[in-house]
Automatic annotation (TrEMBL):
GO cellular component: plasma membrane protein complex
InterPro entries reported for this sequence: ABC3_permease_C, Lipoprotein-release_system
Keyword Membrane: yes
Organism encoding this protein: Leucobacter viscericola
Residues annotated as signal peptide: none
Protein topology in the membrane: Multi-pass membrane protein
Alphabetical GO biological process terms: lipoprotein localization to outer membrane
Transmembrane segments: 15-38, 64-86, 106-129, 149-174, 206-229, 249-271, 292-317, 337-358, 388-410, 430-450
Entry's localization field: Cell membrane
Record's keyword terms, sorted: Cell membrane, Membrane, Transmembrane, Transmembrane helix
Protein name: ABC transporter permease
Protein family: Belongs to the ABC-4 integral membrane protein family. LolC/E subfamily.
Amino acid sequence: MIRVAFTTLRADWRLWIGPVIVVGSTALLLTLVVTYWWSLGTPQAESTLATLGRSLDEVRASSYMLYVVIALSVVIVLGSNTAVTIRAQRYQIATLRLAGARPRQVRAAITLQVLAVSFVGTFLGYFLALPLVQPATDTLTRMSTRTDTHITAVADGVVLLFTLACTLVVCWLASFRPARIAAKTPAVAAVRDEPQASKKMGVVRWIGFGLAVSMVFMILIGAIASVFYVSSPGEAFAAGASNSITLGITLAATFGFAAPLMIPAIMRLWTSIVPPTRPAWYLARQSAFHRFALSSTTIVPLTVGFTLFGVIFGSIATWQTALNITGISEPLNTLDTYVVLTPVAVITGVGSVTNLFMTGRDRQRELALTRTAGARPGTLRAQVALEALIYVVTAGIVALIATIVTVLTQSVTYVLSGGPFAPSLDLTQFALLLPVAYVAMLLVVALPAYSASHKDLRSALTPA
């Protein structure tokens, strides 16, 4: 099966462009963080930190939050991205099954392909990161020490091996469930034109959802209990912000597990408010509901990115408002937040866009079918523009719900500790992120619409 796996990979290499881009972006960001962590252990760095009176663990602590946000984003994005790629290989998988390959062999072939793509993407990201390791190390050192201390970045083979090990493990975990489902799918079912993801939650999702909900309640109880162990308003405000950020990250994971139930409900609810007076809006809405698999894999990464941005900046805004009301003059530094959240924006944005890009051929066929039914080219272009809007707005609504819950919880803990009730939302981040995400998606979905509008119908309807 090794020869079959790599032969299929060479023949269908275009299908794996998306995962390579996502893995490459992840490896680039991970290389920067690992290089910073590794460089702090050199004798030159240790002597420099000693002169500043800082311990090694204290300065390295800033990299741990980056590990958390990168890991959360990568697992969710790669899971959806790999699932889209494997679904796009349904004809090749059906051919293997018809040729006599057993499910175990098909699964092994898919896993080998994923690991090979991970290997290539990691090396690509590592070498692209090399010119950036010194500026990144300087920035992270400045965040940790609050000084302009210079530490020489060391991106040697240890950094490469650690980055490679991390990406291989994450990619294998991300491909585990899609590969198992693809291997068990009968050949006849695999060649259907519209393989739809189940709108029901499986056992694994229910278990994950239950654990996530349990963690949410534990965090809420811990946040309320923590107010009895603080000795000053400033300490209470900092503890409330920390608990709310933890709550927001857990809510993002909870929404990810509940996506098959929650996303269609929210999408249907808010889109029903807009009357379907135009054919393009009706087609866009029905397409988003019909292609549930695409909708879910596109919206979930965006939701994670939007939620983390909204929660963290909302928590900081609430913290700052409480400080101002109580007369504590202590401006909070938001530069560190941008540094932490930049990897989230990159990974989730790239993941959502590549998911749409990899399904471009199927979308072209669907739009061409709509054209044969009498739709005009302008209607097709408006349809994809509105469909991209549905994805972005739905992700924004879910993120806004999580943000409101976290800032309200944070404000309640402030009141219990004797502080003000000052929930605040930093809507500037949503105002910046939503248009950028929409434009990126619009550029991707416009290509199938253009092809379906201008190509000969026979070639546009030809299966991929």
